[in-house]
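Late entry, written up from scratch paper. The run itself happened at the end of the previous shift, but nothing got recorded in the book at the time, so transcribing now.
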Amino acid sequence: MASPLDISSIRADFPILDQEINGKPLVYLDNAATSQSPQQVLDVSARYYKEINSNIHRGVHKLAQAATAAHEAARETIQRHLNAARPEEIIFTSGTTDSINLVTNALTLSGTISADDEILISGLEHHSNIVPWQMLCQRTGATLKVIPVLDDGSLDQNAFAELLTERTKVLAVNQVSNALGTINPVKEMIVAAKKFGALTLIDGAQSIPHMQVDIQDLDCDFFAFSGHKIFGPTGIGILYGKHALLEQLPPWRGGGEMIKEVSFEKTTYNDPPFKYEAGTPNIEGGIALAAALDYANAIGMEAIADHEHTLLDAATAAIQEIDDVKIYGTSSHKASVLSFRLDGVHHYDLGALIDQMGVAVRTGHHCCQPLMARFGITGTVRASFAVYNTESEVEQFISAVKKAAMMLR
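Output as recorded:
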């Protein structure tokens, strides 16, 4: 089915796509790792350095005021995109990993977590939503519990209900699995966790590019995502936190900007969000991230999701026609990720060979080693789609897999 979007026009916005790899037109299907940036975002980044590059919140000169205004306007753009209640709930970080580490360290420093408490995560988590919680448990003596994954790649909701107890202090799960594409029912899980008084953190790294996220509707306490997953630059991300919590929790890092007054005897911390933004931030990154969200919204998040689902359905149907293929992640609720293996073929060999045909996919464990172990494998080949991908590229991808399969078997 043809997309109602003008994909040719959208593709023209992404200069990196107009190149050849090994003499073949680039087919970029590694969007779950990093999406590409449109010219509109690249122009915003360049314009910052050309016209208003300056430190923020400190200077009275014109460039400092212009950079500060642009940075705070970006914060407001991100607030509106998430439908957060106020801009002070938006904290600039270096990415999802940094955001989650901020929360785990702030919770540790606050004394919120004790040895009697339990932290609940899921078997679908990226390492960035596993390791920081393990480190918190090592520091506090708390226990890490894991929601098991069913054969179709969805979370076992019955087991989740049994794992929730009065000891559950935090529920931290992703909204969309980066390795399988599973969309988790996080809104319902948040409601269940709150009945036990647990804090909730949602890893939105993979949901932000593929769906409209309404923070107030979700009613989570924390939400984290990275700019490079949604047409923005690397090294910039967001932590959303409910304002009341941000006021209560202590800062993690110390330095400039996160203070009101400093003496050698005592330091008074700044108000949220600034008390969590120590030092000079990635000013250009924040402004460019806001431009990336503006770009996505101009297309329409629902239209993006519809187009990507069309590509996913086409790729899923076509790859099943190849002998001895196994798809990992067959839940009926999925975002645009196709993760698979060919019997008798190592995922790395397959990925390397189709790269020679100009098709870029990801191979390996996708920073989800516990999830791979659950399925008894070391990794998969993962094709992940974005709005600038086409049905023709899906056909090229399938053709490359078929050719590689014949060569490797």
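Residues 263 and 269 are 12 Å apart (CA to CA).
(Scratch paper discarded after transcription.)
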